[in-house]
Amino acid sequence: MNVVRVRKALVHALLVAFVLGAPVVRADGDRDAAAAAGPAWSDLSPEQQRVLEPYRRQWDALPPARREAMARGAERWGELSPEQRSRARERMQHWRNLPPEDRQRARERYERFRELPPEDQQRLREGYHKYRDLPPERRDELRERWREMSPEERERMKQKWRDATPEERERMRRRHEDRRDDRDDRA
Fold first, then answer.
1. Of 6, 74, 112, 116, which residue has the fewest beta carbons closer than 10 angstroms?
2. pTM for the complete prediction?
3. 7 occurs within a structural domain
4. pLDDT tens digits, residue range 122-151?
5. With contact defined as beta carbons under 8 Å apart, do 98 and 9 qualify?
6. Is residue 6 included in any domain, yes or no?
7. Is 130 within a domain?
């Protein structure tokens, strides 16, 4: 399994979740009916219809939940800046190019993420942003260390992290950075 590809797929899945996250309400305000039946093509705004035009012929054949998700996505798409749209297109293309088993793994991880309490989701988002902001060499180093670990070592590390308080996690980070700095000084 290519860890980088799966990680990118997970980022894409989170992006898709963001894009598809807004609720859909029919023009008459009946949210429950819209959710049960899915929006009809005529219920979509002109902007949503423009974005979803490639699906117009098959719209009525799509499952209601899929239509609802696509309508939400089209609504969010209209709110994105051109730069955000460009990045989203790149990520969607990357997603389409992933092997089916990697996409499935990313979907499963995303479902597990959605089942987490909001504070754990936020903690994971913050961790991801910290990782993303690291210099590329540092990310490569961390990926290599992870690859070198046995499955048992990885599980012990994850469990230790899950069991740690925020203060303990911060101490763990500082100890790790100190050890890394010492190794760099010796090199």
1. 112
2. 0.51
3. yes
4. 988 998 998 889 999 989 998 998 899 999
5. yes
6. yes
7. no
Domain count, the chain: 1
pLDDT one-digit tens code per residue, 55-76: 999 999 999 999 999 999 999 9
Query: Which residue is listed with tokens 């609802």?
Result: 68
Which 3-state string (H, E, C) describes the chain?
CCHHHHHHHHHHHHHHHHHCCCCCCCCCCCHHHHHHHCCCHHHCCHHHHHHCHHHCCCHHHCCHHHHHHHHHHHHHHCCCCHHHHHHHHHHHHHHHHCCHHHHHHHHHHHHHHHHCCHHHHHHHHHHHHHHHHCCHHHHHHHHHHHHHCCHHHHHHHHHHHHHCCHHHHHHHHHHHHHHHHHHHHHC
Position 75 in a domain:
yes
Other C-beta atoms lying within 10 Å of the C-beta of residue 32: 9
Inter-residue contact 64 to 38 (CB < 8 Å): yes
